[in-house]
Amino acid sequence: MATQQDASSGLPAGTRGVAVQRGAGAPDADGVAEEVPVALEYNGISHAVMLATPLDLEDFALGFSLTEGIVDSRADVRDIALVEGCGGLTVQLQIASGCFARLKDKRRSLAGRTGCGLCGAESLPQAVQRPAPLQSEARFGAAAVSQAVQALQQRQPLRDASGATHAAGFADAQGRLLLVREDVGRHNALDKLVGALLVARQPAQDGFVVVTSRASYEMVGKTVRAGSALLAAVSGVTGLAIDLATDANLTLVGFARSERLSVYTHPERVVWAAAA
Question: Is the C or the N end of the chain the one with fewer CB within 10 Å?
Answer without folding.
Answer: C
